[in-house]
């Protein structure tokens, strides 16, 4: 029989060590300077601490406001994110309800600050293809939220009730430009021109190589192809695309 030696450590262990990297990048994006001067509070938790706390929850796969309660007494969570105080569940919900729409406009700026940063003095290598193009891949996927009463939950193409987010990636190394939450019933191509309008200029500013948009048949839409061409002209860059054909009612032989 194996004998176990049990010791009490002089320091605390955390199962969410990755929050330290979240805090590091939020510090690099200077969230405090972006939020607090424009959205000041008279007392209590600063709005930058609200945003950082909720972003950390999302990075851990926790979207419910209730999840913050388990971190209110977590010293590592507070220290890793540089928080003066961890908000309570009601405070987090009320502030997000009040300011989330305004803060949404800050996301592209924060994204550019992170994606445009350097590693050891060098720009990020997003990973170009052998042909010289840097790919931009996008697709939707189903999130199962069956049995809940969350807003805009609907029947997805995967046959489950939930959401159908759209993810956009730059390069071949897994760098995510955007992850857009969508209603479960929304078709892949519906409103995706707005994703292109946001992400193609961002991608063009991050890499010098020509870009190649790759998508499955769910994005087979003349409107989307025209949007890609329009964005290429707007940023004066070569942006090619490969989209799987969806014949719909057209004869396959055509």
Short description:
This protein is α+β, with helices and mostly antiparallel strands and 254 residues long.
Produce the secondary structure layout.
Blueprint: H1 19-28, H2 31-35, H3 47-59, H4 75-81, H5 89-103, H6 107-115, E1 118-119, E2 122-123, E3 134-140, E4 143-144, E5 154-155, E6 161-163, E7 166-170, E8 175-180, H7 192-206, E9 211-215, H8 222-235, E10 239-243
Parallel strand pairs: 3-9, 9-10
Antiparallel strand pairs: 1-2, 3-7, 4-6, 5-6, 7-8
Helix pairs in contact: 1-3, 1-4, 3-5, 7-8
Amount of beta strand: 15-25%
- Using the coordinates above, name the CATH class of the largest domain: Alpha Beta
Into how many domains do the coordinates divide?
2
Per DSSP, the total helix count is 8
How widely separated are the two ends?
73 Å
Helix content: 25-40%
Q: Tell the overall outline.
A: globular
The poorly predicted ranges are none
Strand order of the largest sheet: 8-7-3-9-10
* Helix vs. strand class: alpha+beta
Query: What is the CATH topology assignment of the largest domain?
Result: Nucleotidyltransferase, domain 5
The number of strands is 10
Verbal overview:
The protein is of the alpha+beta class. 25% of the residues are buried. It is built from eight helices and ten strands. It is globular. The protein has a five-stranded mixed beta sheet with strand order 8-7-3-9-10, covered by helices on one side. The chain has a three-stranded antiparallel beta sheet with strand order 4-6-5, with no helix packed on it. The longest helix has 15 residues, at 89-103. It has helices at 19-28, 31-35, 47-59, 75-81, 89-103, 107-115, 192-206, 222-235; strands at 118-119, 122-123, 134-140, 143-144, 154-155, 161-163, 166-170, 175-180, 211-215, 239-243. It folds into two domains: 19-115, no CATH class; 121-243, 2-Layer Sandwich (Nucleotidyltransferase, domain 5), CATH 3.30.420. The protein is 35% helix and 15% strand.
């Amino acid at each position: 029989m194996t004998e176990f030696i049990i010791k009490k450590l002089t320091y605390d262990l955390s199962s969410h060590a990755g929050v330290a990297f979240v805090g590091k990048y939020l510090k690099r994006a200077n969230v405090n300077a972006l939020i607090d001067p424009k959205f000041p509070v008279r007392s209590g938790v600063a709005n930058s601490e609200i945003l950082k706390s909720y972003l950390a929850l999302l990075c851990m796969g926790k979207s419910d406001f209730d999840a913050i309660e388990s971190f209110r007494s977590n010293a590592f969570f507070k220290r890793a994110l540089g928080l003066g105080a961890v908000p309570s569940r009601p405070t987090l919900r009320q502030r997000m309800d009040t300011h989330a729409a305004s803060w949404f406009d800050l996301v592209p700026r924060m994204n550019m600050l992170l994606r445009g940063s350097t590693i050891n003095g060098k720009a990020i290598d997003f990973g170009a293809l052998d042909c010289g193009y840097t790919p931009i891949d996008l697709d939707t996927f189903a999130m199962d939220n069956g049995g809940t009463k969350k807003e805009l939950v609907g029947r997805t193409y995967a046959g489950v009730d939930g959401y159908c987010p759209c993810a956009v990636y730059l390069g071949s190394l897994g760098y995510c430009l955007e992850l857009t939450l969508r209603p479960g019933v929304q078709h892949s191509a519906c409103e995706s021109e707005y994703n292109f309008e946001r992400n193609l200029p961002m991608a063009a500013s991050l890499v010098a190589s020509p870009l190649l948009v790759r998508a499955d048949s769910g994005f087979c839409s003349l409107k989307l192809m025209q949007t890609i061409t329009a964005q290429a002209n707007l940023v004066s860059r070569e942006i090619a695309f490969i989209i799987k054909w969806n014949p719909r009612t057209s004869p396959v032989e055509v």
